[in-house]
Design brief:
alpha/beta; Rossmann fold; 2 domains; 5-stranded parallel beta sheet; 4-stranded parallel beta sheet; 41% helix; binds phosphoric acid mono(formamide)ester; binds norvaline
Amino acid sequence: MHIQHYLQFKDLNADEYGYLFQRAAFIKQKFKAFEKHQPFADPDRTLALIFEKASTRTRVSFEAGMYQLGGSVVHLTTGDSQLGRSEPIEDSAKVISRMVDLVMIRTYEQAKLESFAAHSRVPVINGLTNEFHPCQILTDLFTLAEHRPAASGLPLDAIRGKVVAWVGDGNNMANTWLQAAELLGFTVHVSTPSGYEVDPVLAGIANRNCYKVFKNPREACAGADLVTTDVWTSMGFEAENEVRRTAFAQWCVDESMMAAAKPDALFMHCLPAHRGEEVMAEVIDGPQSVVWDEAENRMHAQKALMEYLLLGRL
Ligand code: CP
Ligand code: NVA
């Protein structure tokens, strides 16, 4: 039996994203109106949340989201489960997936997530790996379409042709942006310090026309519809902290970069943010920033995703 996992952005196609963005808007509107929406209540569905790295947004959005959908949640971490005592990931997958309906994992190597999925009886969602963060880009694109809707009202039309400036590390977020750009037809202007470039092979893209590389981050922001960045040091790379602080000093989104972008450009950051490092307070706390809507939308977008993986189109 085919199981639809969500391990990287390209696991779903453009048509499915079109559906998910519209469904997320519908689910969000119900939440705002205090209307129950409980497709997982009867029969009750259970989500296992497995965290091998820290989280605030991912945990709260999945956990609150699953309860609101009428389901329930089991929360596991490396420290409080046999995952931290070397039980093989394949064995963990076989056991956990016999007892729950859906699994979300945040871990280190994408290969580990893929091993789990290969031995799972139920859909597996990537809650962040060293290589990808698809739930975040799903949300960021939903947020972009919400704030800058197309005349047609179709979210995919709002996204197609846009320019997204990526300022910072060629990391899991950057890789996922590239996959999304290739799939949904927009362009990413990427500016990273040398030594931290994106790798199209690692990002898993076939068409290099979906991104352009800029040495100067200000030039990457020129004409952008959205400027976005992330921490200089991702989880798991803390040993490189000092070296990165020096290398990334010029890759701080400031007001001059926002001024280079389109006048109505948005600023996003997946959070957690470090003001004065990758972004200045004037930008993240300024009028073009939509980071709080972006964070909230994790829950609405992931509710649509979980519903789709378990129940298909409703
Ligand atoms: N953006 C994001 O994934 O946040 P957390 O690390 O807090 O889950
Ligand atoms: N790139 C960051 C994102 C955190 C949500 C990390 O992997 O730590």
